Amino acid sequence: MQIQEQHKRRVLIKFSGEALAGKGGFGIDLEILKFIAQEIKNLYEQNLEIGIVVGGGNIIRGVTAAQGGLIKRTSGDYMGMLATVINAVALQEALETLGLDVRVQSGIDITEVCESYIHRRAIRHLEKGRIVIFGAGTGNPYFTTDTAATLRAIEIEAELIVKATKVNGVYNKDPNKFPDAKLLSLISYDQALHDHIKVMDDTAIALAKDNCLPILVCNMFKTGNLIDVIVHQKGKFSLVK
Ligand code: UDP
C-alpha cells in the first residue's frame, strides 16, 4: 500500500517595513525584529510551511524618494526594493538565531547577498522545511510589496496570504479616529476594491481575486495571535475572499 504524504499547510505572511521601525519611525528596531521572529518561529512550529514578504517603508519608498523631482520614480522604486532586501536579511538573521533554516530570495539579482528568486527552488526550500523570505518585491518598479506578496503567494500555491498589521483587521471606518468603528470579519474582493481598503492596495487585491487567493488581515503584535488566527481561526481578523 502506498503511504500518502501528508501535505503541510503553506501560507505567505506579508508585513510592512514600517512594522520593523518601532517608535523612531525609521530603520530596524532590534527588539521588534526579535519579537516578530519569535512569533514566526512559534507559528512555524505548528507544522506550517512559511513564505514571507517584508516591505521596505521603514527605509525608503519610491514615491517618497521621487517627491521634489531630484530622484526619478524608477530609481526610487529600485531603492525601495533594495530596502526590502535589507529587511529580509535582518529577518533571516533573527530567525536563524532562533534555530530556523531560512533562505532569502531576491527579485533582483544580488548574488553576493542572497539567492535570486527561482520558483522551483523556493518550493524545494519550503518542502524541506525552510522559511523563504522573498526580497526586492516583484523586481519591477511601480509595484508594491503587497502585490509582490500576492504574486509570490500564488506562485508558491499558498492557501492564503496573511497581511500582518498593527490592527485587528479591516474596519468600516478608521478605528483610531472613531471608537465605534466595526471590524469587518468577511469582505468580498469586490467590496474591498470598491472601498479601497487601506491595508492592501488595489493591484494586490485584484490579483488575489483573479486567483481566488484569500487574504487574512490580522494583528501581528499581540503575542500568539498569528497562531490563533491562522491555525485555530479564532480571535479577531478579517478575511477578504
Ligand atoms: N517596490 C517596487 N516594486 C515592487 C515592490 C516594491 O518598486 O515590486 C518599491 C516601491 O518603491 C515601494 C518600496 O519598494 O514603495 C517599498 O515597498 P512597500 O512600499 O510596499 O513597503 P511597505 O509599505 O510594505 O513597508
TrEMBL record:
The lineage of its organism: Bacteria, Pseudomonadati, Campylobacterota, Epsilonproteobacteria, Campylobacterales. Keywords: Allosteric enzyme, ATP-binding, Cytoplasm, Kinase, Nucleotide-binding, Pyrimidine biosynthesis, Transferase. Pathway: Pyrimidine metabolism; CTP biosynthesis via de novo pathway; UDP from UMP (UMPK route): step 1/1. InterPro entries: AceGlu_kinase-like_sf, Asp/Glu/Uridylate_kinase, Uridylate_kinase, Uridylate_kinase_bac. It comes from Helicobacter didelphidarum. It catalyses: UMP + ATP = UDP + ADP. Its EC number is 2.7.4.22. ATP binds at K14, F15, S16, G17, G57, R61, T165, Y171, D174. Belongs to the UMP kinase family. Its main location: cytoplasm. This is Uridylate kinase. SUPFAM superfamilies: Carbamate kinase-like. Transmembrane segments: none annotated. Residues 22-27 are annotated as: Involved in allosteric activation by GTP. One of its GO terms (biological process) is UDP biosynthetic process. UMP binds at G56, D77, T138, G139, N140, P141, Y142, F143, T144, T145. The gene is pyrH.
